[in-house]
């Protein structure tokens, strides 16, 4: 055990510094996302969802950093990663709309053009009336018509279609 600590002392120290730095960046980014959510008066569930996306991204960076610090053979690692990404790429190509909806949800979070309780009009022939936003989720936005019908509208269509903000109403 003593041999391990003597032989790998640099890697252990670099790993500790890297992990502390990564945790510090995660803490700061979480605070910043919460502040953006609070200043924009956004729903807390939307803010938590973006924090979760950020945490997953930081985890991938952490694993990659630790692997590099400990000197994993990058040729073998690149072969493994290319195989994994090929499988993931095929799966994401098959479900590209899910990925585009999640990406659009993140864009809607940071641009915050409308909030829950706002009345909007979508410039589309299928929606000739005004709609009330009742919830904004990761994949879709829940809308309610004046007749009380609940509709779900994909996030990526909010970025593709014109949406007019009629007025801000509270639920």
Describe the structure.
With 171 residues, the chain is of the alpha+beta class. 62% of the residues lie in helices and 16% in strands. It folds into 2 domains: 2-94; 114-168, SH3 type barrels, CATH 2.30.30.60. The chain has 6 helices and 5 strands.
Q: Evaluate the radius of gyration.
A: 22 Å
Average pLDDT works out at 83
Query: Helix coverage percent of residues?
Result: 55-70%
**Strand percentage, roughly?**
15-25%
Sheet of most strands: 5 strands, antiparallel
pLDDT < 50 stretches: none
User: In whole angstroms, how far apart are the ends?
Assistant: 63 Å
Helices and strands, in order, run as HHHHHEEEEHE
Structural class: alpha+beta
Strand tally is: 5
Strand order of the largest sheet: 4-3-2-1-5
Number of domains: 2
Q: Based on CA inertia axes, which overall geometry fits? A: elongated
Number of helices: 6
Short structural summary:
This protein is an alpha+beta fold and 171 residues long. It has helices at residues 2-7, 9-39, 44-69, 74-94, 96-111, 155-160, and strands spanning 118-122, 131-136, 140-144, 150-154, 163-168. The protein folds into two domains: 2-94; 114-168, SH3 type barrels.
